[in-house]
Design a protein that fits this description.
This protein has about 300 residues and is an alpha/beta fold.
Length: about 300
């Protein structure tokens, strides 16, 4: 049994049926536990709901946990390894969508799109205090630091450069690219915009301190919320140390209504959808289908993590 644990849109369901075949994949809503189907699952198509050691232990036939995306921090990797279940991801399938979302968040913060949208809808767009326009800006002429230089950052960098930005980056190793490599501390201290593109690991957790960033800078996060100290982020936005933030990911998801980020006018927020486009889904499901076929045929799996 192949199970998709998610809350798919009608288009998502249609794509699953088109690629796997009608009825081949069993859908279980992400809000529901997998208890009822656990005994029969051989392959789990995983999106965001954590794959726990208890679930893995309850699924004796489980052979493949296929992440629809890149980050595997929501999967109990040690438990999967002990169980004999392979874990695979699919680097590159969502890179275009994530790069475009990062760019859109940068521009939304710099141009204060949400603020002016709300004012226009309220009939106040043309009568807003002219000083509000003093707080907008352009991509061009700014230094943009990319933390992590994987597929999404590599797509984003030339687009930003074409708009006139200076690109600097930090990664585990220097790359043969026409951009300056900087140590993380230097990048944070000198960049007008910092965009995060690295995985969540023990080393990177809370590695981004907003108060190390340049005063007046913008933070964009389409990677993982736990990369940033959330308390310091709220403080930096509230105090004005940071000009603004564009956030698609959070330390706690779904974001509780009590979270102070929801009340900050200089934060542009989205519900972890940077990756989620119809084009990404087709690419992702195609890889997932191929790995399920490979599993059944006893062939090597694509992008196997463990």
């Amino acid at each position: 049994m192949i199970v998709l644990h998610a809350r798919p849109s009608p288009g998502f369901r249609d794509a699953v049926d088109a690629i796997f075949g009608p009825g081949v994949v069993t859908h279980v809503d992400e809000a529901e536990p997998l208890d009822a189907v656990a005994p029969d699952i051989t392959a789990l198509l995983h999106v965001l709901t954590p794959v726990t050691p208890d679930f893995i232990a309850s699924a004796p036939k489980l052979k493949l946990i296929q992440k629809l995306g890149v980050g595997v921090n929501t999967i109990a990797l040690d438990a999967a390894r002990d169980h004999g279940a392979a874990v695979c991801n699919m680097p590159g399938t969502n890179s275009q969508a994530v790069a475009e979302m990062a760019l859109s968040l940068m521009m939304a913060v710099l141009r204060r799109t949400c603020f002016f949208d709300a004012r226009t809808r309220a009939g106040e767009g043309w009568t807003a205090d002219p000083s509000e326009l003093d707080q907008v800006g352009e991509i061009g002429g700014r230094t943009i630091g990319l933390v992590g230089f994987g597929n999404s950052a590599q797509l984003l960098a030339p687009a930003l450069a074409a708009l006139g930005a200076k690109i600097v980056y930090n990664a585990r190793s220097k790359r043969d690219v026409p951009y300056e490599y900087l140590p993380l501390g230097d990048l944070l201290a000198t960049s007008d915009i910092v965009s995060l593109h690295m995985p969540l690991t023990d080393e990177t957790r809370a590695s981004i301190d907003p108060f190390v960033m340049k005063k007046g800078a913008v933070l964009v996060n389409t990677a993982r919320g736990e990369l940033v100290d959330q308390g310091k982020l709220v403080e930096a936005l509230t105090s004005g140390h940071l000009r603004g933030a564009g956030l698609d990911v959070f330390a706690e998801e779904p974001l509780p209504l009590s979270n102070p980020l929801l009340g900050l006018p200089n934060a542009v927020l989205a519900p972890h959808i940077a990756w989620l486009t119809p084009e990404t889904l087709v690419r992702s499901l195609t890889v997932a289908h191929d790995n399920c076929r490979r599993l059944a045929a006893g062939e090597p799996l694509l992008h196997q993590v463990i």
